[in-house]
Design a protein that fits this description.
Blueprint (H helix, E strand, L loop, with lengths): L25 E2 L2 H6 L15 E4 L3 H14 L3 E4 L16 E4 L6 E5 L4 E4 L5 H9 L3 E2 L12 H7 L6 H4 L6 E7 L5 E5 L11 H5 L8 E8 L1 E2 L4 E8 L2 H13 L6 E6 H11 L3 H4 L2 E8 L3 H12 L5 E4 L3 H12 L1 H6 L3 E4 L9 H15 L2 E7 L4 E8 L10 H14 L18 H5 L1 H14 L12
Parallel strand pairs: 2-4, 3-4
Antiparallel strand pairs: 1-2, 5-6, 6-10, 7-11, 8-9, 8-10, 12-14, 12-15, 13-14, 13-17, 16-18, 17-18
Helix pairs in contact: 7-10, 7-13, 13-14
The structure holds flavin-adenine dinucleotide.
């Protein structure tokens, strides 16, 4: 099935974007349009958006949406463009609303442990500011240095620390959102607890820019752990490592990080970084614990994995721990040296990780597509990474076929299409299969209620 673009979507007027040209922040500069046309998903759009509005204030966003609503012009919200599902990709007939210039940290309250930020602030910048108060912001995508909080909220992003602290949803207390017609909605609250009304925060978090544009967020911060302990372990193969990770979950231990990497990914990291992980095994597991009892929890982890591991290395210092964590963080940049990388994010029940890894190896063998795998093992969230040639789009065959096979593998194992990157454009054709008729109809009704003309990021997510 071909990917649908906005011009195929009823209700939106493709080609009418010039009506937004009167916006003071509008540009139709070719370089600006090219820079805002896609994300890091590996998707190459066939056309460029008509223009870009570089928002600097809430008023800029309100004005953009009022105009777009009045003229039925499709609008694509954009944060830092690091998304992996084509969610921020834009085509002819659409205008991009770029939020990256709204990048101020408005307040940090060290007593309430909250931060109020604009959407274009980078994830790592929030953490750097929180660190000054002995606090941290838990959702830590591997893209922390380059992705925006607005994009994190729109995708409900995850990361390594989510093993213990949950995904973005667990760290957002309130939002300020510009709706499709330009009205401003406040969701959630500034307090840690509160249950008045429906949970509109949860509705907007993960809605991929299809229900409104996030212009401000109140984030929950947490105390920095007093102590962390780190262990790396090597295994003969990734299926065995998957069984070891499942053993940790089954032992009811709560690591703050639990990551897996397969042999081909270790080779790519070694090649890029001059390390020698692959010599030590065919798969790598990284576990970290934190808090006052971190060392005791790590003892339990070491016990749980010992029947499977060929060797384990407990970090003796903060520097050694950082080197082990770095090996995992280096995985994506190492693969990006090999070609255009498309990072999948299926999730499966945590006791089925080994089956999922075996299934991915079968898909690679059957389609001839190179697949490298890492995983946030504590969440059952795998990142199968397809590497194609730099000029190829992930929507070209056979990569596209491999994507479909991965989704069906996740379904067979009782899992899901996307654990943290979102559906975007790339996974939309499989959404109906996962949601089922009633759930999809309810979701489409919510979309129609909030965005009756269908101007917000059309042909994405649901
Ligand atoms: C090297 C690398 C590693 C990554 N690692 C991880 C990881 O570990 N975990 C993870 O979850 N993701 C990861 N990602 C994916 C990506 O960084 C996240 O999805 C991130 O949340 C996207 O943020 P962004 O600012 O780049 O958003 P964009 O790519 O600009 O947009 C993503 C989606 O959010 C919408 N959007 C953006 N801003 C707003 C807003 N203010 N209001 C409404 N909608 C908005 C867009 O329309 C789009 O649908 C990684 C990406 C890369 C390149």
């Amino acid at each position: 099935m071909p990917i649908k673009t906005p011009s195929d979507t009823p209700g939106v007027t493709a080609g009418a974007a010039t009506s937004l040209a009167g916006h003071p922040r509008y540009t139709s500069d070719a370089d600006a349009r090219a820079a805002a046309a896609t994300d890091r998903s590996g998707y190459i759009p066939p056309t460029l958006p008509d223009g870009v509005i570089r928002a600097r204030s809430v008023d800029d966003v309100v004005e953009a949406l009022r105009l777009a609503h009045a003229h039925a012009i499709p609008v694509v919200p954009r944060g830092a463009g690091t998304g992996l599902a084509g969610g921020a990709s834009a085509h002819a007939g659409e205008v991009v609303v770029d939020l990256s210039g709204m990048n101020r940290i408005l307040a940090i309250d060290p007593v309430e442990m909250t931060a109020v930020v604009e959407p274009g602030v980078l994830n790592a910048e929030v953490n750097a500011a929180a660190a000054e108060y002995g606090l941290f912001y838990a959702p830590d995508p591997a893209s922390t240095a380059i992705c925006s909080i607005g994009g994190n909220i729109a995708t409900n992003a995850g990361g390594m620390w989510c093993a213990k602290y949950g995904v973005t949803r667990e760290s957002v207390l309130g939002l300020r959102v510009v709706l499709a017609d330009g009205r401003i909605l406040r969701t959630g609250r500034a307090t840690i607890k509160g249950v008045t009304g429906y949970d509109l925060n949860a509705l907007f978090i993960g809605s991929e820019g299809t229900l409104g544009v996030v212009v401000e967020a109140t984030l929950r911060l947490r105390p920095r752990p007093v102590r962390t302990e780190t262990v790396a372990a090597y295994f003969p193969d990734i299926e065995t490592a998957g069984r070891a990770a499942s053993a940790i979950t089954a032992a009811r231990i709560q690591p703050s990080i639990l990551e897996l990497m397969d042999g081909p990914t270790l080779e790519a990291v070694d090649e890029a970084e001059g390390t020698c992980h692959r010599e030590l095994g065919g798969a790598f597991l990284l576990a970290q614990t934190d808090g006052y009892g971190a060392h005791l929890e790590l003892d339990e982890i070491a016990r749980a994995i010992s029947p499977y591991a060929t060797s384990t290395h407990r970090a003796a210092s903060a520097e050694e721990a950082e080197a082990l964590v770095k090996a995992r963080r280096d995985a994506i940049p190492a693969l990006e040296r090999l070609g255009r990388v498309s990072i999948g994010d299926i999730a499966v029940p945590r006791n089925r990780l080994a089956e999922a890894f075996a299934g991915l190896e079968d898909i690679s063998a059957q389609t001839g597509v190179r697949i490298f795998s890492v995983a946030h093992a504590a969440d059952g969230n795998l990142h199968p990474m397809i590497v194609v040639e730099p000029h190829e789009s992930i929507t070209d065959r056979p990569a596209k076929a491999a994507l479909g096979d991965m989704f069906h593998l996740a379904q067979r194992l009782g899992g899901t299409l996307t654990g943290e990157h979102g559906v975007g454009l790339l996974k939309r054709e499989w959404v109906g299969e996962e949601l089922g008729e009633t759930s999809r109809a309810v979701q489409q009704a919510i979309k129609a209620a909030l965005d009756p003309s269908g101007i917000l990021n059309p042909a994405k997510a649901i």
